[in-house]
Design brief:
Blueprint (H helix, E strand, L loop, with lengths): L7 H7 L45 H4 L26 E5 L4 E2 L6 E5 L4 E7 L12 E8 L9 E9 L16 E9 L3 E9 L4 E9 L4 E7 L13 E11 L1 H4 L9 E2 L19 E11 L10 H9 L2 E3 L3 E6 L4 E7 L9 E4 L6 E3 L8 E15 L2 E11 L7 E6 L2 E4 L3
Antiparallel strand pairs: 1-4, 2-3, 3-6, 4-5, 5-13, 6-11, 7-10, 7-13, 8-9, 8-11, 9-12, 14-22, 15-16, 15-21, 16-20, 17-22, 18-21, 19-20
């Protein structure tokens, strides 16, 4: 005990202030402190250093309750800030075919509708206040108010099995799926966001509202202890927004409280039709999927985001040098910016010809009947050979190098 420590009687009789020296060593324990009695304001600057902390006193659980790092790599969505658009920044006349059309990793799934729309990457002035430079916009150009039962339109993104193991789905330790994003539209609307487990045919949906101003939607989907995600590079989870649906998808009661086996008429109940008017627009950005709880959007650098997108889609080199083998054929090598998800296929995303011939050995530029194929025996997701052939003017010179320039060709390993 300190030599000048006071007893209770002395304090009650004539003391109004207690100094550190007045307190006996070890007399104040955590059990004697009221809850929340010690606040940040009552702790002096630099009063608690590493030497004052007991070994292992600060654990990951105490700074990160969800257990997955709140400081980075939380967001499973690739291109959630809508910054990357390798194919095109705008495509019109959509609505007849499903697929990837503009922004990377953003998939359109559509069936049966006469409605048409434009999909584009936009930079809206009012986005600055929410911390984003880009968004995805859908703009209805042809309405469809006569909705057949089986019609639907969804906007979604898809995940490999290895990327969603963190949710521990199908185990007793399963985690909550936390979804967030920013949306706005031309008028009020209600849509449904669905999580669909491709591996086990299980799903859950929740509705959300859209207004004419940017607002953040935050949705928590419960953990699911049934059905594990397959740990591979194939599609395991789909996260999609139902924008238009017939009674096949809307005729029941929305399955929103717990995961269950997929029942079609429980997937998009009470949703607005995006095709109800040519005035209809839908904007989205800041799309995030994470474990446990909703946190601030995880911004990644545009270079890092590009590399993540290249796993699924890479534009073929604008210039390709190939070695002539015959008068009409040759072989070329290509290398990847990064390894792709799987062995890619070559996709021509343009109605114009694949190539323009610009030989190094001649001024000729005429080209017809040209084809390019991936050499299946000598290439994979890391890179390899492609075969080139066609009707050339002048002919390819055997053993000579020539140069071709691409238009809009892509190597695709999408899911």
């Amino acid at each position: 005990m300190a030599s000048n420590a006071k007893n209770l009687a002395e304090l009650l009789n004539n003391e109004s202030t207690i100094a550190v020296a007045d307190v006996a060593d070890g007399s104040i324990t955590t059990a004697k402190l009221a809850d929340d009695a010690v606040t940040n304001a009552k702790i002096g600057a630099n009063a608690v250093g590493t030497t004052e902390l007991a070994d292992d006193a600060v654990t990951e659980a105490k700074i990160n309750p969800a257990g997955l790092g709140k400081f980075g790599r939380r967001n499973v969505v690739i291109n959630g800030a809508m910054q990357i658009a390798q194919r095109s920044t705008s495509t019109t006349g959509l609505g007849a075919a499903s697929g990837y059309h503009t922004l990377d990793r953003m998939n359109i799934d559509v069936s049966g509708t006469a409605g048409r729309f434009t999909m584009s990457q936009e930079q809206e002035n009012d986005m600055k206040a929410i911390g984003f430079s880009d968004c995805l916009k859908l703009d209805c150009t042809t309405a469809d108010t006569s909705i057949a039962a089986g019609e639907y339109l969804t906007l979604g993104t898809r995940f490999e099995g290895k990327d969603v193991q963190r949710f521990k789905k199908g185990t007793s330790s399963a985690e909550v799926f936390a979804v967030s994003f920013y949306v706005k539209g031309n008028a009020s609307a209600t849509y449904a966001l669905e999580l669909y487990d491709q591996d086990n045919n299980r799903q859950i949906s929740k509705t959300f509202n859209v207004t004419t101003s940017w607002s953040r939607v935050e949705l928590l989907f419960p953990a699911d202890t049934t059905g594990t995600f397959t740990s591979d590079v194939n599609q395991s989870l789909i996260m999609q927004i139902w924008l238009h649906a017939g009674t096949t998808w809307t005729g029941g009661t929305l399955n929103s409280s717990a995961w269950g086996s997929s029942v079609n008429n429980q997937r998009a109940v009470s949703t607005t039709s995006f095709f109800d008017s040519t005035d209809r627009t839908f904007f989205i950005t800041g799309w995030q999927l994470e474990v446990g709880e909703v946190t601030d959007f995880e911004h990644r650098g545009i270079g890092e985001e590009s590399m993540l997108c290249y796993r699924y889609l890479q534009r073929f080199p604008k210039q390709l040098t190939f070695q002539g083998l015959t008068a009409s054929a040759g072989v070329a090598q290509y290398s990847m910016r990064t390894d792709m998800r799987a062995n890619p296929t070559l996709v021509n995303d343009n109605s114009s010809p694949y190539w323009e011939n610009t030989p190094w050995t001649s001024a000729g530029t005429s080209l017809s009947g040209f084809t390019i194929t991936i050499n299946g025996g000598h290439c994979d997701k890391h890179g390899g050979d492609v075969n080139v052939s066609g009707s050339w003017n002048p002919s390819i010179v055997n053993g000579k190098q020539q140069l071709v320039r691409t238009e809009k060709c892509f190597l695709s390993a999408e899911i």
